[in-house]
């Protein structure tokens, strides 16, 4: 998809890849990752050579199931777009790591948000963000075979560019720039429309392949599985009762003691893993939603508001209400909106300081899985 996007703009992709330090031979190979900073460099070069700062948006017309590898096929066989996006979150590590996806309900709507692992040696170009959002929307519409879903709003983590005409023409919805996270909001009813290619039997088969691929990616790490399961449950907003060690061990089909020993072997304790992931989601909800404190506490799995309050004081050195007031972009975004313009606003492996990306797509990753292993799974 990346090659097709750049080639369609008349660019010499081979030369750009060579200058960026990307081996063309791995482009499009299943489960092959490269450093995400290299992908940043490639988009920077493509922007410079083309002279088009909106080149990332061109990815919209060059996406199909193969662009997402096995993740795309699990999405394609899903009952509806809601199920498809849930699978995207669940298996996002197969596209890349160095980021987390969250799919949360907001009233009758759903927001898909991406949280990036910061790269100490590089700055993410906006074209990288544009390509991710444009290709996501393009693939969702490919799945429906039409012009749905229509986003209700899209938020970009980068500042407003000089011209947003192409953004407006492509997305045709309220846009917000300088947001805390990159995100896209869909109408919940549109996401429930059946997909013409839905096939529950195939979906189950694709899921099993994807799960096997994740096991290879994680190296069968208990810590990776625990983090992935906690992240999945937090993003689903299941509430209290799903985050104790007993239920987690049961879901992994091991005893609580076995889970405890496995985590100790990795030098961590379950409560610390849970606390760290809760902190990330608390930051997301407090900075990026209008949920009241009681509901945020529920979504994070706390049994009462008092426990959530104490946790926030420990995480942020201030109560949740103050953190929302001081750190939330919502108020700032509303104040920055000029009148008369359309500017309204999974599983995951262990994090490392550097991140890598699968060059066939656009996201970031930390691990590579050998192609031969994966194709062997598919051949069985």
Tell me what you see in this structure.
With 380 residues, the protein is of the alpha+beta class. The chain folds into 2 domains: 2-197 and 359-379, H-NOX domain (Alpha-Beta Complex), CATH 3.90.1520; 222-336, Homeodomain-like (Arc Repressor Mutant, subunit A). It is 50% helix and 8% strand. It contains 18 helices and 7 strands. It has helices at 2-8, 13-20, 36-50, 70-76, 81-90, 126-144, 165-171, 188-191, 200-218, 222-236, 245-251, 256-265, 270-288, 293-299, 305-316, 320-327, 329-336, 371-379, and strands at residues 34-35, 99-106, 109-116, 153-155, 175-176, 182-187, 356-357. It has a 5-stranded mixed β-sheet. Strands 1-7 form a two-stranded antiparallel ribbon. Helix 7 links the parallel strand 4 and strand 5. Helix 4 runs antiparallel to helix 9 and helix 11 (245-251) packs across helix 12. The longest helix has 19 residues, at 126-144. The protein is globular, with a radius of gyration of 20 Å. The protein starts with a helix and ends with a helix. The model is unreliable at 329-380 (pLDDT under 50).
Q: What is the fold-level CATH name, i.e. the topology of the largest domain? A: H-NOX domain
Strand numbers in spatial order across the main sheet = 2-3-6-4-5
Helix % is: 40-55%
Backbone structural class: alpha+beta
- Give the mean pLDDT: 81
Continuous helix count: 18
What is the terminal-to-terminal distance? 27 Å
The CATH class of the largest domain? Alpha Beta
Would you count the extended β strands for me? 7
């Amino acid at each position: 998809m990346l090659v097709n996007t750049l080639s369609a703009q008349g660019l010499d992709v081979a030369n750009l890849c060579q200058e960026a330090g990307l081996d063309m031979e791995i482009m499009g190979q299943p489960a092959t990752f490269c450093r995400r900073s290299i992908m940043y460099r490639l988009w920077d070069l493509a922007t410079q050579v083309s002279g088009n700062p909106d080149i990332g948006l061109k990815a919209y017309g060059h996406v199909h199931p193969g662009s997402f590898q096995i993740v795309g096929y699990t999405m394609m066989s899903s009952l509806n777009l809601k199920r498809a996006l849930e699978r995207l979150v669940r298996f996002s590590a197969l596209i890349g790591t160095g980021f987390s996806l969250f799919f949360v309900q907001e009233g009758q709507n759903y927001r898909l948000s991406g949280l990036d692992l910061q790269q100490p040696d590089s700055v993410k170009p906006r074209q990288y963000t544009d390509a991710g959002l444009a290709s996501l929307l393009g693939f969702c519409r490919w799945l429906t075979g039409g012009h749905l879903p229509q986003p209700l709003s899209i938020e970009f983590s980068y500042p407003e560019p000089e011209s947003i005409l192409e953004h407006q023409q492509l997305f045709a919805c309220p846009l917000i720039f300088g947001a805390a996270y990159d995100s896209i909001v869909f109408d919940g009813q549109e996401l429930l429309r059946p997909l013409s290619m839905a096939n529950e039997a195939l979906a189950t088969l694709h899921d099993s392949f994807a799960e096997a691929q994740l096991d290879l990616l994680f190296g069968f790490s208990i810590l990776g599985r625990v983090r992935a399961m906690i992240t999945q449950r937090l993003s689903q907003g299941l509430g209290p009762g799903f985050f104790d060690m007993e239920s987690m061990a049961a879901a992994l089909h091991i005893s609580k003691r076995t889970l405890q020993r496995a985590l100790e072997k990795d030098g961590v304790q379950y409560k610390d893993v849970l606390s760290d992931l809760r902190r990330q989601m608390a930051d997301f909800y407090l900075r990026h939603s209008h949920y009241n404190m009681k509901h945020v506490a529920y979504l994070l799995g706390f049994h009462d508001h008092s426990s959530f309050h104490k946790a926030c004081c420990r995480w942020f050195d201030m109560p949740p209400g103050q953190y929302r007031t001081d750190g939330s972009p919502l108020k700032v975004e509303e104040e920055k909106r000029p009148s008369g313009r359309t500017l309204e606003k999974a599983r995951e492996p262990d994090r490392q300081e550097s991140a890598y990306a699968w060059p066939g797509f656009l996201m970031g990753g930390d691990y590579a899985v050998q192609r031969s292993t994966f194709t062997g799974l598919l051949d069985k």
